[in-house]
């Protein structure tokens, strides 16, 4: 089972994965533009870099290379990429 928690205005959202026994299998935190919540939908833009917390408590930042590629291709402006990296770093430290 996966449970995603969206809060309007956040630059990230977590999805927690649990096994059938209810044990947490891990948490995946997606870094994105500020989440917009509507009655029947949510909107954000994925900023590629993410943070993962594994069941043993280890935390890892992933997909920095995908963000670098997006900047190089002109899809993500450099200032937005820096914001994404800053958010990812803060999440790493908080988890």
Give the CA-based shape.
globular
Helix content: 25-40%
- Architecture, according to CATH? Beta Barrel
* Beta-strand share of residues: 35-45%
Fourth CATH level, the homologous superfamily: FomD-like
In what order do the strands lie side by side in the largest sheet? 1-2-3-6-7
Strand segment count: 7
Provide the succession of SSEs. EEEEEEEHH
- Provide the residue-averaged pLDDT: 96
Distance N to C terminus:
21 Å
CATH level 1 class label: Mainly Beta
Largest sheet: 5 strands, antiparallel
Radius of gyration, taken over Cα atoms and rounded to an integer in Å: 14 Å
Number of domains: 1
Describe, in plain words, how this protein is organized in 3D.
By secondary structure, the chain is of the alpha+beta class. The protein has a single domain (2-94), classed as FomD-like (FomD barrel-like fold, Beta Barrel), CATH 2.40.380. 27% of the residues lie in helices and 39% in strands. It is built from two helices and seven strands, in the order E-E-E-E-E-E-E-H-H. It has a five-stranded antiparallel beta sheet. It has a two-stranded antiparallel ribbon with strand order 4-5. The relative contact order is 0.18. The mean pLDDT is 96.
Secondary structure: elements and pairs:
Elements: E1 2-4, E2 12-18, E3 24-32, E4 36-38, E5 41-43, E6 46-53, E7 59-62, H1 64-72, H2 78-94
Antiparallel strand pairs: 1-2, 2-3, 3-6, 4-5, 6-7
Summarize the structure.
With 95 residues, this protein is α+β, with helices and mostly antiparallel strands. It is built from two helices and seven strands.
